[in-house]
Design brief:
It is a single chain. The protein is built from eleven helices and four strands. The longest helix has about 30 residues, at about 1-30. The chain is mainly alpha-helical and about 300 residues long. The mean pLDDT is about 90. The chain has helices spanning about 1-30, 40-55, 60-85, 90-115, 145-165, 170-180, 180-185, 190-215, 225-240, 245-265, 270-285, and strands at about 120, 135, 140-145, 220. The protein is globular, with a radius of gyration of 19 Å. The chain has a single domain (about 1-285), classed as ABC transporter involved in vitamin B12 uptake, BtuC.
C-alpha cells in the first residue's frame, strides 16, 4: 500500500504537469486547427524568465513565478501576432511549418541569450527546506513539493474552466472554435480572442514548466522538447481540441508512465517509448481521442 500511494501521488503530479501543457495545444487546435509545436519552447522560456527574475533581480519565488507566467503569456500573444496572424487564410501546412520554425527560433534564441550550459533551478530558492520536507500518508513519505504541485495544478485548472465556461471571453473562444466566420459576423474581434487563447495557453505552459523545473531542476534551452512532446501525446490521447480531454489525457499518461516504471523496472529505460505506443494506438483505434468528437476535415 505504501509503494502504491507513493507512485499514485507521483503519477498525479506528473500527469497534472503534462495536462497543464497539453491544454495549450488543445485550445489552439480547437480554434485554429493548428498544432503549435513551439508550445514546449514557450514553456522553456517561462522557466528562464522565472530563473533570471529570482537570480538576477533577486525577486522572491512567488514574484518571479508571477513575472514568468505573465512574460510567457506576452510571448505567446506576440508569437501569434508575428508568426501566425499573417497566415490566418494561408494553407494549414504553412502555419504548421511556421510553428516548427518558431520552435527552432526560440531554442536557438535561448542558447544565444541564456547560454547552453544547464543551470540549477534550485538557485531560485534561498530557503530550500521546503523542497526537502515530507508528509506521511498511511506510512508513505510523500514530498511536500508533490502536494504543492498537485494543489497548484488543480487550482489553475479551476481558474481555466471558470474563464472558458463562465466568462464572455470564454464564450467567445468556444464560439470561434465552433464557427469563426459566423462569430466574426456577430461582432466578436476574432484576432483578439485568438491572441488571448495563445496567451492563456502559454501562461499555463509556463506554470507547468516552473513546477516541472522544481521537480526536475535542470534548466537548459532544450528542456521543453520532451515535456512538450509528451503533452502533445496527452492532448491527442484525451482528444485534441477538448480541454477536458487534455486534462484527462495528461493525468492518465502520467499515471501510466509512473506505474510502468514502478512495477516493471526492467522497462524503465523505454518509458518514453510507451508514450509513443499510446499515441500510435489512439490514432489507429480512436483517432478522436477519449473525449474528442469526430469531425469531417474541410479541405
Amino acid at each position: 500500500m505504501t509503494f502504491f500511494l507513493q507512485n499514485f501521488f507521483n503519477g498525479i503530479m506528473l500527469g497534472g504537469l503534462y495536462a497543464l501543457i497539453a491544454v495549450g495545444y488543445s485550445m489552439v487546435y480547437g480554434i485554429l486547427r493548428l498544432i503549435n509545436f513551439a508550445h514546449g519552447d514557450v514553456m522553456m522560456m517561462g522557466v528562464y524568465f522565472a530563473y533570471y527574475s529570482a537570480v538576477v533581480f533577486s525577486l522572491n519565488p512567488i514574484l518571479s513565478f508571477t513575472v514568468a507566467v505573465l512574460g510567457a503569456a506576452a510571448l505567446g500573444f506576440l508569437i501569434d501576432r508575428v508568426a501566425y496572424k499573417p497566415l490566418r487564410k494561408a494553407p494549414r501546412i504553412s502555419a504548421l511549418i511556421t510553428a516548427i520554425g518558431v520552435s527552432f527560433f526560440l531554442e536557438n534564441l535561448a542558447v544565444v541569450i541564456f547560454g547552453a550550459i544547464p543551470k540549477s533551478f534550485l538557485d531560485v530558492f534561498k530557503d530550500k527546506s521546503i523542497l526537502e520536507k515530507t508528509i506521511t500518508v498511511a506510512d508513505a513519505r510523500i514530498p511536500l513539493l508533490t502536494f504543492l504541485v498537485i494543489i497548484v495544478t488543480f487550482a489553475m485548472f479551476s481558474v481555466l474552466f471558470f474563464v472558458v465556461y463562465k466568462t464572455k471571453i470564454g464564450m467567445a473562444m468556444r464560439a470561434i472554435a465552433a464557427d469563426i466566420p459566423t462569430t466574426s459576423l456577430m461582432g466578436v474581434n476574432v484576432d483578439n480572442v485568438i491572441g488571448f487563447t495563445f496567451a492563456l495557453g502559454s501562461a499555463l505552459a509556463a506554470a507547468g514548466g516552473i513546477m516541472w523545473a522544481m521537480r526536475f531542476p535542470n534548466v537548459h534551452p532544450y528542456m521543453g522538447f520532451v515535456p512538450g512532446l509528451k503533452a502533445f501525446i496527452a492532448a491527442v490521447f484525451g482528444g485534441i481540441g477538448s480541454i477536458s480531454g487534455a486534462v484527462l489525457g495528461g493525468i492518465l499518461l502520467g499515471m501510466i508512465e509512473i506505474f510502468l516504471a514502478a512495477y516493471f523496472p526492467s522497462v524503465m529505460g523505454y518509458r518514453d517509448a510507451f508514450a509513443f505506443i499510446i499515441l500510435i494506438t489512439v490514432l489507429l483505434v480512436k483517432p478522436s481521442g477519449l473525449l474528442g468528437k469526430k469531425a469531417i476535415e474541410k479541405v
